[in-house]
Amino acid sequence: MTSSAAATSTDATAPAKGHYVILDGLRGVAALMVVVFHLFEAYSGGSPHKQIINHGYLAVDFFFLLSGFVVAYAYDDRWGGMTQWQFYKRRLVRLQPMIIVGGLIGAALLGLQHWSLFPKLEAVTVWQVIGVMLLGALMIPMTPSAEIRGWGEIYPLNGPQWSLFYEYVANILYAVGLRKLPIRWLGALVAVSALALVGLLVLGPRGDVIGGWALNASGVHIGLTRVMFPFFAGVLLMRLGKRIKVRHGFAVCSVLLIAALSLPRFGGPERLWVNGLYEAACVILLFPLIVAIGAGEKDVDGPSLRIARFFGDLSYPLYITHYPLIYIYTGWVVDKKIPAAQGALVGAGVFVAAVAIAWACLKLYDEPARRWLAGKLLRRA
């Protein structure tokens, strides 16, 4: 299971500034790739070496980079008249409504997830589900022994929520003091974080960054390592002002991103470090390059503008609501031994359903909820 943090659009609760439409669109492209990755994962047999869209989990690290860039862009110059609590309220308004509805969808669909992959679900009571849903809504993680699915997830109703936990961690670190670092010291922090990431990838036991959703030493180590470099590299990239202008920037960036997330695993089980080097190159070199190109032009027009805006609006709701459907689909494929052709047909339907649910949540719930909360909580911010 792989998951990720897609709430990185230019914050509607932040002060009005020019809009990086291409970056919003890239966030949507990455979110769509996450869904495709999770659908193919049902046929991987639990092995990353057999996955088809093999590096889709790196979308999480791309989201973290985008988040750092956008948070710095929206808030770096606001701290003279904004308190930490006002910053936290803005981030809560942006992120929390969809976290709550993601948990509700996960709880509502739990009855359709009684497959052999989820050994604990048979003994789960309604009160346990309600308790887990409330804990998830409050962003309180669960230990592997206490969670109800058997996968060790800190948010067992909606696995991808783990990355929002680390999104909040990074936002808190930014607000409590790291935002004050001058560029030189911020660069040093980013460099040290990059070394930690390379160490995890090249010297670690897996040769990839998969993980972060378990509340144990390994899970916390992976989660913190995954968020620290890209988030604060995004902050640094915004402050340095490095932008690259290319023609058809959205298309160019989309192709680069899709290719990076789709390439097969490198090196095989015998040379895990080879794949680790590839992932390090993606996160440390390629993803900042893509963001620098995407930020090279704030305004696009024509079809690119409409596509980018649609993808950007859809991305966070899609990311945070699709996985309950994936639980059902994966359990069905594995337990029923569904052939690939039949699975692809049903998987296409799941993809369409995930997009439809996300769009409905965005328009009927998320946007109205954020407007209401902004009016109640942010009037004096």
UniProtKB/TrEMBL annotation:
<feature type="transmembrane region" description="Helical">
    <location>
        <begin position="185"/>
        <end position="204"/>
    </location>
</feature>
<feature type="transmembrane region" description="Helical">
    <location>
        <begin position="272"/>
        <end position="295"/>
    </location>
</feature>
<feature type="transmembrane region" description="Helical">
    <location>
        <begin position="340"/>
        <end position="362"/>
    </location>
</feature>
<dbReference type="Pfam" id="PF01757">
    <property type="entry name" value="Acyl_transf_3"/>
</dbReference>
<feature type="transmembrane region" description="Helical">
    <location>
        <begin position="316"/>
        <end position="334"/>
    </location>
</feature>
<dbReference type="InterPro" id="IPR050879">
    <property type="entry name" value="Acyltransferase_3"/>
</dbReference>
<keyword id="KW-0472">Membrane</keyword>
<dbReference type="GO" id="GO:0016747">
    <property type="term" value="F:acyltransferase activity, transferring groups other than amino-acyl groups"/>
</dbReference>
<feature type="transmembrane region" description="Helical">
    <location>
        <begin position="20"/>
        <end position="40"/>
    </location>
</feature>
<feature type="transmembrane region" description="Helical">
    <location>
        <begin position="162"/>
        <end position="178"/>
    </location>
</feature>
<feature type="transmembrane region" description="Helical">
    <location>
        <begin position="249"/>
        <end position="266"/>
    </location>
</feature>
<feature type="transmembrane region" description="Helical">
    <location>
        <begin position="210"/>
        <end position="237"/>
    </location>
</feature>
<keyword id="KW-0012">Acyltransferase</keyword>
<feature type="transmembrane region" description="Helical">
    <location>
        <begin position="95"/>
        <end position="112"/>
    </location>
</feature>
<keyword id="KW-1133">Transmembrane helix</keyword>
<feature type="domain" description="Acyltransferase 3">
    <location>
        <begin position="23"/>
        <end position="361"/>
    </location>
</feature>
<dbReference type="InterPro" id="IPR002656">
    <property type="entry name" value="Acyl_transf_3_dom"/>
</dbReference>
<keyword id="KW-0812">Transmembrane</keyword>
<protein>
    <submittedName>
        <fullName>Acyltransferase</fullName>
    </submittedName>
</protein>
<feature type="transmembrane region" description="Helical">
    <location>
        <begin position="52"/>
        <end position="75"/>
    </location>
</feature>
<feature type="transmembrane region" description="Helical">
    <location>
        <begin position="124"/>
        <end position="142"/>
    </location>
</feature>
<keyword id="KW-0808">Transferase</keyword>
